[in-house]
Write a structure and sequence with these properties.
The complex is a heterodimer.
Chain A lengths: L2 E2 H5 L3 H14 L4 H38 L15 H11 L10 H18 L12 E2 L3 H9 L1 H12 L3 H32 L4 H6 L14 H17 L11 H4 L10 H25 L13 H6 L4 H31 L7 H30 L4 H12 L4
Antiparallel strand pairs in A: 1-2
Chain B lengths: L1 H22 L3 H21 L3 H26 L20 H28 L12 H9 L3 H21 L9
Helix pairs in contact in B: 1-2, 2-3
Classes of the chains: A mainly alpha, B mainly alpha.
């Protein structure tokens, strides 16, 4: 079975005692019921936290763009304007829900929901930490790629259903952009899967360590290039940064979400910000060491040895450290994504497609080949272990 | 209990989606219901422990085939409803005797094949306990690269042929007449 958050929590004595008490009171084996309840609670927590991160992403974007443009950004609603996203959310909910009369009503309502579902389904495998991953699927990264392509369907349907020129153009551009950039993105992911030897997030992150020289980005030059290919392709996947032609204000009014008002538009925007977070999380997991804490602090064993704490408590401390490591790296990448958006000009749609098919895809294929050859030639050792091993043998290892 | 719930949900989505595909009169809606039905099939794969197959179903079908079908419908403009002004669905060859005979014959042949398959399954009586979930990715990869390497290579040649064929069919043609 795949290990999940329930597997991690069932190590604790309190939970086992609770299950035993519940089984006695209810008369049947309460194991699966408690598993379901734990899952439900953790899902609620994850969804709540991620929605907050999505909302704070809008606030962060406005503040960081303001900083880059030498102005202030929102600073009235709450201290330093931090409640601005709540005010925006309330405003959106209170707006009138307009459905154009010529629109295909069923598809119009379905499109933002499909975007949201595609993004929230990927949260099941995002590796927050080794214990709090909702489900460490054997096919984790593969499942994530599959669910992220639902967003493309949502974008296309949003463009089609609005029955308007701007939306149709934006929707078709958006969908073709998303399906085109899936290829270099997936090829970069596969080159890391070759290095790690498995599709599950646990395997991918377990093959890395806490310190930067143990990350896959510095494993071999092909993985280094692969990180940038993946990052650029993911920017295009989420309709972000210089690739936001489908929702460009100056070109297409608002592209595929022109006709959406109020919370329907809010769902599109929220899905985009959460998808950026998920994609940054995947980049961190694959290339930047994931939730690994330097000096092996994440396992918690050092706390039991040195400080004599209870095993479960030290494991929980280790999990908190891992969470901190993951969120620090992901939010740093999130800052880079926002920074790139407000720095670079927008690409034209033919430049976009040329970049994908003529540049990123061949480079990604070459990376895949290079990683495979590296694994064969150097037995999977990173460039640092090769250098240090050579130095050790030359210097006379003892 | 979870397996039962998962199976019932997946089967309901598969069958409901398939029924809606046939019943609806809007081609785009039919595509969306097909997406739902394929999701149900992925759920059914997950029920019997074929994890890689379920994920592959999601990636290939939900992410690839459906988007391509939507693009094809948009680019060929085939989304208009075919209802005439009297409210009857009027498609050529519906209600034709030839169509009913062909459809009836197909239905009889399909049901006979299905009955034969089910009879074989019921006769062999596999044991009722489901095997424990185990990782299938590594096994699939090993088999594909050793026992079934020929099928693997032939399918890659087939995909290459399809790619080149699509590019050839859709290439811009020089204007022959002016």
């Amino acid at each position: 079975m795949n290990s999940t958050v329930v597997t991690y929590l069932s190590q604790s004595k309190e939970l086992s005692a609770a299950i035993a008490w519940l089984s006695k009171t209810l008369g049947f084996d309460a194991n699966s019921l408690v598993s379901f309840l734990v899952f439900a609670v953790v899902c609620l927590i994850v969804v709540g936290v991620m929605a907050t991160i999505g909302g704070l992403g809008t606030y962060a974007e406005r503040k960081i763009s303001a900083d880059l443009q030498m102005r202030m950004g929102p600073n009235r609603v709450g201290p330093y304007g931090i409640l601005q996203f709540l005010a925006d959310g309330v405003k959106m909910i209170l707006k009138e829900d307009i459905i154009p009369s010529g629109a295909d009503k069923f598809t119009f309502i379905l499109a933002p929901i499909m975007c949201m579902v595609g993004v929230f389904a990927t949260l099941a495998v995002v590796p927050f930490s080794s214990g709090f991953m909702l489900a460490n699927l054997n096919v984790g990264i593969f499942y994530l790629v599959g669910m992220a392509s639902l967003v493309g369907v949502g974008v296309f349907l949003g463009g089609y259903a609005s029955n308007s020129k701007w939306s149709m153009l934006g929707g078709m551009r958006g969908a073709s952009q998303i399906i085109s950039y899936e290829i270099p993105s997936t090829l970069s992911i596969i080159s890391i899967v070759i290095l790690a030897g498995g599709l599950s997030m646990g395997t991918l992150i377990g093959g890395q360590g806490g310190l930067p020289h143990q990350w896959y980005i510095l494993h071999n030059p092909f993985a280094f290039i692969g990180f940038f290919i993946f990052f650029i392709a993911s920017l295009a996947e989420t309709n972000r940064a210089p690739f936001d032609l489908p929702e460009a204000e100056s070109e297409l009014v608002s592209g595929y979400h022109t006709e959406y008002s109020g919370m329907r538009f809010g769902l599109f925007a929220l899905a985009e910000y959460i998808e950026v977070f998920v994609v940054c999380g995947v980049a961190v997991a694959l290339f930047l060491g994931g939730y690994n804490v330097p000096f092996d602090l994440g396992t918690g064993a050092i706390f039991t040895e040195k400080l004599g704490l209870d095993s479960m408590l030290s494991q929980n401390i280790g999990q908190l450290l891992e969470l901190g490591s993951f969120f620090t790296k992901t939010l740093a990448l999130y800052y880079v994504v926002i920074w790139v958006r407000w720095t670079l000009p927008r690409l034209r749609v033919d430049q976009l497609m040329t970049l994908c098919w003529k540049y990123l895809t061949p480079i990604a294929l070459f990376n895949l080949l290079g990683c495979a050859v590296w694994m064969y030639a150097f037995d999977g050792k990173s460039i640092y272990s090769l250098i240090f091993e050579t130095a050790a043998t030359v210097g006379g290892s003892h | 209990m979870f397996t039962n719930t998962l199976f019932l949900l997946s089967a309901a989505i598969t069958l409901g989606g398939a029924f809606a595909v046939v019943y609806t009169q809007n081609l785009m809606h039919a595509c969306i219901f097909l997406l739902a039905s394929l999701f149900g099939v992925a759920g059914l794969y997950a029920c019997i422990g074929a994890d890689f197959l379920a994920a592959a179903q999601l990636v290939v079908y939900a992410g690839g085939v459906i988007i391509l079908m939507l693009f094809a419908i948009m680019l060929t403009g085939g989304a208009s409803n075919s209802i005439n002004r009297y409210g009857l669905v009027k498609i050529a060859a519906m209600g034709n005797t030839k169509t009913f005979f062909a459809a009836g014959f197909t239905a009889i042949v399909t049901s006979l094949v299905l009955l034969k398959i089910i009879a074989n399954v019921l006769k062999n009586q596999p044991n009722k306990v489901l095997a424990a979930n185990e990782a299938t990715v590594e096994k699939l990869g090993t088999l594909l690269a050793t026992d079934h390497i020929l099928a693997f290579e032939i399918s890659s040649v087939l995909l290459l042929g399809a790619l080149i064929g699509a590019a050839v069919i859709s290439r811009p043609r020089k204007e022959k007449h002016d």
